[in-house]
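Chain A, query sequence.
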Amino acid sequence: MFTVAIARPEHRELRAGALTGILAVAVSTVSSGVLGMRLLHLSGAYVPKVLLVFAADAALVLLTLPGAHRFVRMGAANQVTIVRGALIALLAGLLGEQGGHATAAAAVVVASLAMVLDGVDGWLARRSGMVSAFGARFDMETDAVFVAVLALLVWQFGKAGAWVLLAGMMRYLFAAAVAALPRLQRPVPSTLRGKTIAVLQMIALIVALSPLCSVSVSSGVAAAGLLALVLSFALDVMWLLRRPPLHVS
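Chain A, predicted structure.
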């Protein structure tokens, strides 16, 4: 969980810099939303939905950044993750919208850009020496929301059955299991397997969303991605259950 930091003088510079970056991205997001609404003939509710999602993301950043980020600047890596959040907000705004092939194609382009940037933020953090607990958690939660939105869009566009929504729920079901079972309450080490399957899940959902794929192909690809994701979480749970409890009374 993110930790909300108590306001302190030393946090003002960090929050001010973060707010500047967020506002710059917000302006671009609104412009992109208005353009998308006109080109794709979306409803007037599209831009407000986009702004609502982005505002929630921005509020979380401003509230929790000082508590887990040990630098006085937000850093380029976290700024890239904010841009990813804006792209995800543009995708989330499509939920509930009526759209055809053009809308699905636009969603694939935006989603592909968001996925590519997922590999940029971590690289920037390591290169700049600004790796932080906040950045790692921010990236992970952004990934979880991204997969959830993609799964909802795949279902909304009729490219797979309601079962595809499980892909977007897995991260939150795992979190609920961790909260309920003390044996699972320890950090899971980052693994190449976990990172690879996370990327493959995103790719599978983006491919499934593509208007170039038939429903049968989309369903098959989405099912393969979901199976790999379930297996990955199952392996994490098995690893946790094999470990001794953190606190022995």
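The chain has eight helices and no strands. The CA atoms of residues 85 and 142 lie 7 Å apart.
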